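Why do we care about 3D structure at all? Because function follows from shape, and shape follows, mostly, from sequence. That is the central idea of this module. The next example makes it concrete: a single protein chain, its amino acid sequence, and then its structure expressed as tokens.
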Amino acid sequence: MKNNNEMIEWFRSSSTYINTHRNKIFVVLLGGEALESENLPNIIYDLNLLHSLGVKLVLVHGSRPQITAALAAAGKQSSYHLKRRITEADCMTTIKQVVGGLSFDLEAMFSMGLPNSPMQGTDIRVCRGNFVTAKPLGIHDGVDFHYTGKVRKIQTRAIEQQLAQNNIVLLSNLGYSRTGEVFNLTVEEVATEAAIALNADKLILFIPGDGVRDQNGDLITALTETDARRHAHELAARDDGESICVSHALDAALKAYANKVHRSHLISFDKNGALLQELFTREGNGSLISDDNFDELRDATIDDVVGIIELIRPLEQEGSLVARSRELLETEIGNFKVVELEGTIIACAALYPFSDKRGEVACIAIHPHYQKNGFGERLLESLEKKARGLKLETLFVLTTVAAHWFIEKGFAEGTLSDLPEQKQKLYNFQRRSKVLLKRL
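And the structure:
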């Protein structure tokens, strides 16, 4: 029964996302590696669900490993330059066969309607066509890329007409030139250029792992443009296939970001339900590159009290923060800053000014799913800016668990006598909080 209750609550909470996503354009990249995953049928089921909920889908599929295998089977070995396959004329017949076969397979999967399956009762139409105009990549460093090309134009109006008719548009890594030739493109470029041309609300990129991970192996759920660029550079320097795949996805997301597609998701193609968790839950299940990670840092209002209580309650229970009643928070709400993401308070901090030009930094709390994304630093910077505006000269903090973090941010250890007199009288000797100071 507990699981049923959890399912009911999840279903109710997902209504916000359902309403938000309806009639929005999502460009979804399924690389050749994803098409070989055992989880592919589940991804198709989930895309079918998105389509049923009113999302307009442009699905872009790749074929990189399949092309490599097919060329090898035909006794042909691919050459590369600048990390791009050199596509000679005698390879194109094989490449067209491979890409065409994969496109047909995807169309077949969307055509399923078996009883007792997630596709039962669906009537999805998948549309393909010459929606991508290409041109030759040319000669670089004296190397002729032959039939390796790049995107010249996305036929936006034609795609929008198909989406308006409730069709899923299927693109591949092939493009067509005005001279009647076919060119081999990178699937990342096709997906990115399609998202930009269509002014898509989201670019969704399926990758081998759960997302981008930090040096400790922990998943980074949200990245700024700067963070994404740094990780893309680090991953590109590695030799393993997964790192290279993720670096390509990050490069695509960064290009989309630079061209006003400001929400790109990197999601695992091997994890069942990752797409739904990423799009319909607050905690997500991948890495999001977005322009709104810090845009909602603002002064708190009385309406934020409940959200702050939910955020700090676990920290109060474990003893990291001093317990605050709702009544106290309501009277002190003017001292708080919060970070709001998709209607949820995910971080908070407070500044309490004293009459002797000193101020206390307190109650810094970050939701566990959004830690290691710079929210703490941004909140502290905001509080310091506010303190300077109030003509405060010194900030202090009492902490039991975060002393090193504050020292890294310019604080230094102090003593009880460094606190304002009224704060000294309230000092809890059982907690034995460290006193840290920072001159402004």
